[in-house]
Amino acid sequence: MLDTLLPVVSSSLLSAQNRAGSTALHWAALNAQLGTSRALVDFPGGPGADLIDIKNAAGRSPLGEAEAAGWDEGAKWMVEVMRLDDAGAALGEEEDAEAQKEVRDADGRVAHTSLSAAEMPEGGGNLASS
User: Fold this and answer.
1) Beta-carbon contacts of residue 91 (< 8 Å; ≥ 6 apart)
2) What is the architecture, at CATH level 2, of domain 1-83?
């Protein structure tokens, strides 16, 4: 269904929020829909991985909703595609450098992840293209 709808609607609808502040990606996360989540984030001309950062009125991002719903597969996928904009600057020209990212879950717990320069995609900060 999304394959039919996405090409004919404005890509700005991907980040549109309902009265509760939730986007289509929030709902995909709540309902453990990996295919839908991928289609929304990967849609050409759309906001891409920035959708993962949008918070609803409850203060939860789609990643937070996935974690709250116990959808580990989706939460893991979202962390993998998140933009690590600060990672490119942190790595600079050093091949042995390591970039770190802090992610908070729905309950406020903090998870840390890191990437070495060897693991970073070409161009540095956008994991969505890897």
Assistant:
1) 97, 98, 99, 117, 120, 124
2) Alpha Horseshoe (1.25)
